[in-house]
Amino acid sequence: MLKPTMFQLEEHKVITLTHSPIASNRNVLGGTLVFAGTRVPVQTLLDYLDDGCTLNEFLENFPSVSRESAIAVLKLARDGRGNDMALQSY
User: Is the full-model pTM beyond 0.85?
Assistant: First the structure.
């Protein structure tokens, strides 16, 4: 059974997911936030978009990341805009 993951987006707003699109493990890229099941840092998607690339361009270059995972991460990033997004596994 998967352990739920909590994302604290604001002081009083917490989203609990049973399947997170994001993973962090100190043995994978030193604990960098990556797309679950991959070694692709989440920051890479944000950098691609900041550089003017499309989601499709990112997905073509990183086929191990599913469209659904990328969209879920973007929604989490949007909902946490302006806040520190804390990843807590329990």
Answer: no
Whether pLDDT at 8 is above 90: no
Per-residue three-class SS string for 21-33: CEECECCEHHHCC
**pLDDT on residue 82:** 36
Question: What is the Rg, in whole angstroms, of the alpha carbon atoms belonging to the chain?
Answer: 13
What DSSP character marks residue 31?
Answer: G
The alpha carbon dihedral of 26, 31, 33, 38 has a sign of: negative
User: Which residue range is the domain that position 57 belongs to?
Assistant: 5-83
Instruction: Tally the domains of the chain.
Output: 1
- In what side-by-side order are the strands of the sheet with 5-10? 13-17, 5-10, 86-89
**CATH code for the domain of 25:** 1.10.10.10
